[in-house]
Amino acid sequence: MSPVSHGSLLIICFKDPPTRFPETVPQTGAEKGVYRCRDAEFWTCGFFPGSLYCLLERVRKYPAASLPSLSDRSEDSQGKFTEDTRAVYNHDILISHLTDLCRKWSEPLHAMSFRKDTHDIGFIIQPALQRDWELFGNKRSLDSILNAAESLAARFDARVGAIRSWDRFSNANHNINSMDDDFLVIIDSLCSKQFSSLYFDRWLTNSILDLDLLFYAGNYLHSERLLSIASTHATTLLSTHLRPESGLNGDKRYSTCHVVNFSPSNKGKVKQKLTAQGYSDNSTWARGQAWAIMGYAQTYSWTKKQEFLDAAKGLADYFIQRMESSPVIVEQQGRGRYVPLWDFDAPITHTGANGDQGPLRDVSAGMIAANGMLILYGHIAGMGELDAAKRYLNYALNITKDTVDFAYNRDEMRLRICQQDGVTKMESCEATSGHRFDAILEKSTSNFNGNHADRAWDHGLVYADYYFLELGNRLLDMGLR
């Protein structure tokens, strides 16, 4: 048997693909350790197939890092399998089974590429289908990406200079529902997914994002319209969603506002700034800050405009500043400082589901921010500013190490290759800990806003796992193991 470090992901994979997709994993209660699923139309549906494709990409490109026992094919003097040959044989079977799983789980995504009722189409389409196109040259997946880009572009309004995020928003304090007088844009709109590009390396080093969907398709189609929409949206958010903050050395730093409501009928003027998932309208919601770091770092990848690089640096510097200035209570036995609080301005002490008290974290914010910092590292190192670049690399690694030490669930399981009725099969064994937990990482907080009716915190989260896997692939691409 060969160990697979993220086998918990695969527990659910060996079942037939449902019409519902994994999202959260409770850490307490009757459903502890088991994925809660959402309907396929929900915005997070692309991350589980994307996670499978991350694993497939890693096993194909970096087999030694994925299964350390692998080495070159060889036979003994009698022509029989040696352990090395058997490992390679098992590796080939693993690739075959993973490819099959990826295709099955991504199949429902193609039909969603025509949806114009959501700005999250990049999150839905790109994590899986972009990899399918770039790893296998599957033209159907490329067509779905291009269709999705056109669907997203249809939500752009030139009067506002932005893409509409939500059609409506309501909670205990707000009821915003006019398509004529309201135009909601969220900071998340800068990002869609994290992916290291293969096919488009002739143009750029990496590709990501909600805007990345437009940049990606725009470059492929040579469409100035799509490229202009993406760049205009990013430019608008520089002035509406970023808040200048004082830097430690007088440098420019930025916090972020989560939601801005514009008035399309009044020259696109800002009507209101608020939060939907953060602590308060004026607080810094950690995941929103992380989306902005990654979003502007990648927008710079495509445009090479200095203002986007400056924004990404200022956002990352403020994220780092808030982690470093958090009170000592965030550390437990020397761990946890770089596992960010869910909101940097929320009360620190929180009573958990088990009655324990401590800081409420959001691991997903850390994983997204770490990916953004790695992108920044690549850009700045490419300019020859190695000391400045190394700072972002070090913090990305600090976040990663702290996350593994603090939030990695260690219920590793094993996969077994076996023959049954002449058919080679792969099956999962029990988790080594004896305690099933379907996610890789714990301690995410999807929404702890006090006005939200369905709050969720201290759980595994499918996109925290996705960005964790993508981060590992990105580090391998950079030669950092």
UniProtKB/TrEMBL annotation:
Protein name per UniProt: Unnamed protein product
Keywords for the protein's UniProt record, in alphabetical order: Hydrolase
Organism whose genome encodes this protein: Aspergillus oryzae (Yellow koji mold)
One GO term of the biological process aspect: polysaccharide catabolic process
Family: Belongs to the glycosyl hydrolase 88 family.
InterPro entries per UniProt: 6-hairpin_glycosidase_sf (IPR008928), 6hp_glycosidase-like_sf (IPR012341), UG_Glycosaminoglycan_Hydrolase (IPR052369)
GO molecular function: chondroitin hydrolase activity
Keyword Ribosomal protein found: no
